[in-house]
């Protein structure tokens, strides 16, 4: 792009200086032009893009160099400006810098020094461009088809989505329930060349084996009792587009064989039919299970797995990307306040802390549901910590240590709840007891037991 070129405009009313500078700077710029007056300079400036303007401050004109600097920066603030001052006029140099000049050169001109300054201006410009690029990338990366996430892990997911979406590669999406696997599958479709064709999702976990074959491959009229008419299956419906096989690891072993055969042969027949059909689909699958274990214990065929898992995309659970939680909360708040016609609510810092610290076994879906419930049920415009569902308030901060016994974990939770309630009530015991719904005596007893003094 032309804006990547480094173009320099030299403004001086002395022809000697113009030509001297122009000669001296050959090689330091991609393009060098000169102007003998501010008017000429502004004229050129409005026609062409210059990244650096070198201007004499004392010009024989109705406009002095400082005014020119201001005008240039007013028109294009990202322009680098270097002013040329007469020897010893520090005040003018200071004034020029205040007006926004990047640097100044004193006369008599030392060409080596000028070249150095131009090089610096060029580096400065390149940094600016690079920054802008990164910022654009970030702005785009923060969200892809409504998937929110700025943490490094989600950035990585977005990167993979962009990389593979346009390819025909078979993708398998791994992630706990509610992490956004279907969103990712849709994003892959939306960003692909197939986006104008259908995206067909089929949940293999919810499908009885008897129905699955007909669901995937369709059936002919009369293929089985109840088959009143011919019905195309998902493979046919998704022709030209994307077939999303959700919860693919839930399939019975017979269905796995059927699916594998179709994926390998790229052709199939409807149940009860003879015709060999072909469908051009891109297959994306998803699972919330650890496939390694399923393969180890023989529940899932490894040959099917290798066929589906050509490009794996892993979505981390929400508790491993807590930095995204505030953003998600804001996103869902806005969404549900809008949808339920409620004025937008604020989240008090202590409530946000609890939300961020929660364990979220149901991941983003659970968070989304919690926010919707709050929007619908709360009348106030601020969400406080004790408005949150009790399971969040208790779980917050509690880490899962699988080795502890149930009573240990209950005690740990109780201790944390009491200590949080104490802190929230400024260590006022009556208030704390009331908040917790226990007597002051019980509170004293428990505080003693847990050493909370
Ligand atoms: N990063 C995200 N940004 C915005 N919304 C999200 C994000 N992740 C998930 N959601 C929302 O959370 C809900 C669950 O997402 P989705 O259905 O894609 O999860 P899933 O991984 O397919 O879950 P399951 O395994 O239970 O099917 C959806 O409403 C989805 O829009
Ligand atoms: Mg899903």
Would you kindly provide a written description of the structure presented here, covering whatever features stand out?
By secondary structure, the chain is an alpha/beta fold. It folds into 4 domains: 2-135, Rossmann fold; 147-314, P-loop containing nucleotide triphosphate hydrolases (Rossmann fold); 319-395, Orthogonal Bundle (Helicase, Ruva Protein, domain 3), CATH 1.10.8.60; 406-450, Arc Repressor Mutant, subunit A (Orthogonal Bundle), CATH 1.10.10. It is 48% helix and 13% strand. The strands form 5 sheets. Strands 2-1-3-4-5 form a 5-stranded parallel beta sheet, sandwiched between helices. It has a 5-stranded parallel beta sheet with strand order 9-10-13-8-14. α18 crosses α19. The longest helix is centred in the first third of the chain and has 31 residues, at 111-141. It is flat and about 95 Å long. Mean pLDDT is 87; it is low at 397-403. Magnesium ion (MG) is lined by residues 181-182, 246. Residues 146-149, 175, 177-183, 288, 364-365, 368 line the site of adenosine-5'-triphosphate.
Low-confidence stretches: 397-403
| Cα gyration radius (Å) | 34 Å
Tell how many strands the DSSP assignment holds. Answer: 16
The structural class is alpha/beta
Bound compounds:
adenosine-5'-triphosphate, magnesium ion
Order of neighbouring strands in the sheet with most strands: 2-1-3-4-5
- Tally of separate domains: 4
First-last Cα distance: 67 Å
Number of helical runs?
19
Mean pLDDT: 87
Largest sheet: 5 strands, parallel
What is the CATH superfamily classification of the largest domain?
Answer: P-loop containing nucleotide triphosphate hydrolases
- Please write the CATH class name of the largest domain: Alpha Beta
Percent in strands:
5-15%
Name the shape in a single word.
Answer: flat
CATH architecture level-2 label of the largest domain: 3-Layer(aba) Sandwich
